[in-house]
Each structure stands twice: as C-alpha cells, then as structure tokens.
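Reopening this one. Same input as before:
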Amino acid sequence: MEIKNEFNNALLGRREVLVSHEFDANPCFDAVTKMLAEKFKADGENVIVKNIKNNYGSREFLIEALIYASQEHRNKFERKTKEKKAAGGAQ
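Same output, byte for byte:
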C-alpha cells in the first residue's frame, strides 16, 4: 500500500487520503474500509471510502477515503441516507 496524498483537515476533524494498492480482483468497499482502518489505526466506523478507481487492465487501484477523528465529527459532516433517517438518524 502506497500513500499518494494525505491531508490533515483539522477544521473538519478528519484526514483525507489517496492510497494506491494492488488487488487481484475488484475490491469491495467493506474490505477496503477494514484495510484502511488497520493501516491508519482508526475505528472502522470512522472510515469513509469515497472512490475506488483503476485503469482497465491494471491491478493498481486508487482509493479516496476520509478518516474521521471521532464518531461525532463523522455524524456532523457526513450525509445521512434515507434508511438511516427513517431508523432514527443518529447513526
């Protein structure tokens, strides 16, 4: 795993990272979230994977992710989906 870009956004309480990693097949968001949580020593619930991109035929994937400092910061700045709004909103 190679970190291409890392920006510590103190105002929003998060780190914005761009990571390059090789996979044999298309990775799912859950597997990438778990991998990033282990790499950056963060709670898996505070890691948001925005994009997973690659060029056709390449095994190298570019991953854009946000790693929040706490659950409070994540809830404050991330959108809530309709299912979460209907269920109670705070999650």
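So the earlier flakiness isn't reproducible anymore. For the record, The two ends are 30 Å apart (CA to CA).
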